[in-house]
Design brief:
Strand content: over 45%
Helix content: 25-40%
Number of domains: 1
CATH superfamily: Lipoprotein localisation LolA/LolB/LppX
CATH class: Mainly Beta
CATH topology: outer membrane lipoprotein receptor (LolB), chain A
Oligomer: single chain
Length: 191
């Protein structure tokens, strides 16, 4: 019974995502995003974790190069970088470098794919991993992404991306344990 209810909920999300009026706007948004080959913006991120009395705050730069290179360079409170490219993640912090294949860590795939596919304007890739719900217009839009795979749903409950035209403004991640992360993207930076 539980599986039937879950399937019905997911089907409902997919129906919402493909409603005729919103489907046209979503297609227009994805087309607009797909035209971007490069972007570099500042970010401020707040992680609200049950273990901490106050949010953990960091800031830095986020850089995207088509088709799948995404780099997050944290500058404050301490320098670190995370680079997604060619199916692997490279993490550098405190003088150490670690490279891991994404296929070996399926639990982080929703985080990565939500940003990568959105920035690439790849609706098909988004819909392979998420139920996609689009609200608004090109001038002010929200994508709500809900994992289709129950294993991923055990880690990420929902990802909400807000933007205007071809610019992402906020990325909010609600984890299954109730912890949240909100990344606010700022002005474009020179390359």
């Amino acid at each position: 019974m539980r599986r039937v209810l879950k399937s019905a909920v997911l089907a409902g999300l997919l129906v919402c995502a493909t409603a005729p009026a919103n489907a046209d706007e979503l297609d227009r948004l994805m087309s607009l995003l797909a035209q971007r080959t490069h972007g570099q913006v500042s970010f401020v991120e707040e992680d609200h974790l049950a273990l901490l009395d106050r949010p953990a705050r960091s800031s830095g730069e986020l850089r995207y190069d088509r088709p799948d290179r995404l780099e997050k360079r944290t500058l404050v409170p301490r320098a670190a970088s995370l680079l997604l490219e060619n199916g692997s993640v490279t993490i550098e912090a405190r003088g150490r470098k670690h490279v891991v294949a994404l296929r070996d860590y399926p639990q982080i795939a929703p985080f990565v794919e939500s940003l990568r596919a959105t920035l690439a304007g790849d609706r098909h890739a988004l819909e392979q991993v998420f139920g996609v719900n689009f609200e608004g217009t090109l001038e002010r839009w929200t994508l709500t992404l809900t994992p289709l795979d129950s294993k991923r749903e055990g880690v990420v409950k929902q990802i909400r991306i807000e933007g205007a035209n071809d610019a992402l403004r906020t990325v909010s991640i609600l984890q299954a344990d109730g912890d949240t992360s909100v990344m606010t993207l700022g002005a474009s930076l020179p390359p």
